[in-house]
Amino acid sequence: MLDEGIERWVGAAGGGDGRLCVWPRACDAVSDLPSCLSMLRRWEGRGVECVCDPWAMMTRAMVGAGVGDDFVERVLETLAPNPWAAFVVIQAGLSAKQVEIATRFAVLAGKRIVSKPVGFGCEQIP
After folding, report:
1. What mean pLDDT value characterizes the chain?
2. In the 8-state DSSP scheme, what is residue 12?
3. What is the pLDDT of residues 89-113, one digit of tens each?
4. Residue 89 near residue 51 (C-beta atoms within 8 A)
């Protein structure tokens, strides 16, 4: 279904300079690093990008298990340097280390930084 929607968008864009930006989120069709990379490889060179937001890829269970810093660093290290990474998201309520990690990768990759309220994946954290 996602590929059909992307195909329609790509067809409508007609090879112009438009861009479609997919925001990977836990519980969605594009929900983690492997599905994001797979989608981007399928649509490479056709105007499809992704938002580099590792926190949206995490569930409450992942946060509770303490995978935060390592996961954030792995996602940013993989996605941020690529031309199809649109921008890096830094959300409210992060640890100083996570903000430093995200800022470092965004600056090294020359990406804009966008902030958002607290929320992980498909669950909003109050």
Report:
1. 80
2. H
3. 877 777 788 788 888 888 888 888 8
4. yes
3-state helix vs strand vs coil in the chain, percent to 5: 45, 15, 35
Separation in Å, CA 16 to CA 10, 11, 46, 48, 64:
9, 10, 9, 12, 44
Tell me how many degrees the CA angle 102-89-15 measures, rounded to the nearest 5: 120
Helix (H) or strand (E) holding 77: helix 68-79
DSSP letter string, 80-112:
TTSTTEEEEEEETT--HHHHHHHHHHHHHHT-E
CB neighbours of 19 closer than 8 A, spacing ≥ 6?
A: 47, 48, 49, 86
CA 39 → CA 11, 52, 62, 106, distances in Å? Answer: 17, 14, 23, 22
Which residue in the block uniquely carries the two structure tokens 């995978």? 67
The 10 Å CB-count burial string (b at 16+, else e) for 109-125 is bebeeeeeeebbbeeee
Residue whose entry in the numeric block shows the structure tokens 């992942």: 62
Residue with tokens 């590929």: 3
Percent share of the chain, pLDDT over 70? 87
